[in-house]
Write a structure and sequence with these properties.
Helices cover 5% and strands 40% of the residues. It has 137 residues and is mainly β. Bound molecules: zinc ion (ZN) (2 copies). One zinc ion (ZN) binds next to helix 1.
């Protein structure tokens, strides 16, 4: 399905294709970089990804596996857009981008189907449904 992304300030906009599902990542890098207890990610191919507005800022990190990862975000508001493998040795194979579900207009349709890095999952996540809630702030 076609999905549409936009950062918080509106400098970045993109369109891409995604399956109607996502994966929850509990890794400590996602916790630190998102500022939240976990992150939801959906996959797309670099070939399908069309940046329709703005210029992405890139940050490179080395994962636990030793592989370099490229993280793209809005340089103005800091919204996270995607993570992918860093381009090395001039490889031209199409990459997969892990799109951050929170920037997508279709987030409601991207229901999680799996969780990864559950070793660092925060213990109280499963208690959300038991908490009192209000429709807004
Ligand atoms: Zn922005
Ligand atoms: Zn992660």
């Amino acid at each position: 399905m076609e999905v549409h992304g936009r950062c918080h300030c509106g400098q970045i906009e993109f369109v891409t294709q995604s399956e109607p599902r996502s994966v929850i990542c509990h890794c400590t890098d996602c916790q630190v970089m998102s500022g939240g207890p976990y992150r939801a990610i959906t996959q797309t191919s670099e070939d399908d990804f069309r940046l329709t507005k703005g210029v992405l800022k890139k940050y490179y990190k080395t994962g636990d596996s030793g592989n370099k990862r490229e993280l793209a975000f809005c340089g103005d508001c800091g919204s996270h857009i995607y993570a992918t493998s860093a381009l090395e040795d001039g490889s031209s194979a199409p990459r997969f981008l892990g799109i951050r579900v929170g920037v997508l207009r279709e987030m409601e349709k991207l229901k999680p189907v799996a969780q990864v890095w559950t070793d660092s999952k925060v213990s109280w996540i499963n208690e959300f449904d038991t908490l009192p809630g209000t429709p807004q702030q």
